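Would you be willing to look carefully at the protein I have copied below?

:::
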Amino acid sequence: MTLTADDPLSRTAAQREESGRRLLKSSAALSYDPLVDLDWDAPLLDDAFFAPQHRITLYGTDLWDSMSRAQRIDLSRLELASIASMGIWFETLLMQMMVRRIYDDDPRTATVQYGFTEIGDECRHSVMFGKLLSKLDAPYYRPVRFMHEGGRFLKATSNGATCFAGALFVEEVLDQMQREARADESLQPLVRGVSHVHIVEEARHMRFARDEAAIEYAGQRRLTREWSKLVVAASAYLASRGLVHPHVYRDAGLDMRTAVRVARTNPHARATRAWAARRVRATLEEIDMITGPSRLLWKHAGLLEPVPAETA
């Protein structure tokens, strides 16, 4: 990795402080209150999808072809609910990891103050996603037990690199999906509105996470780096595979085991995962965080595959 004056690793403490001040100003200038800025009382449209059809996990399969338009719309509603549920779960983890990280730091610094600001943003996002679940008349899809309990371990043992690299993975994946949704005028207006709020505010979070992940990872010793790479790889694997909960298919009136099997072997769904993760993959590869044994997890999740032109 070749560093320049603009690379995160070359930044002095003063430069990091200046970055924190800029992020604080951006937060003050452009933030939303989802409870006020989104129209939660507007009725949902009867015949509009909740996600682009080609991003739905069963798209392009024989099972998809056998479904009516109404069934497909309902599946898109429930898959969106699952993704929102994952967002709430991860943002709750992230807030705890960030609080742990700044517990011993100086609150007079702009870096710590921005950390508190981001925690506030994530609180509002979790409320927004919770409101969305209610509006969708959908359940909260809690992660499967192994993943949920793994989250307890992660939040208790995370270091700076795992905190920010893990956050960047989830934020980038959601950002890619929401940017596409925001631009799709055929989707539910509320979905596009929620996507817009999250995109604008997460842009700051991702900028912060990219820089801090690189700085924290570079400062770790070799064994700690290997551990960080493994934790981030496992997080990426589980998050990418767990975005759509198996119960979504049951609640959509499908045979759950059949639908799960079809979704997991669907090349369109696999290509979508690689497409959504392509930017964060490039970022983490640039700082040498996807190497060694941990790379196998990224590969097994399908996140290292080239993105077909038709998917992008």
Notes: The CA atoms of residues 79 and 201 lie 23 Å apart.
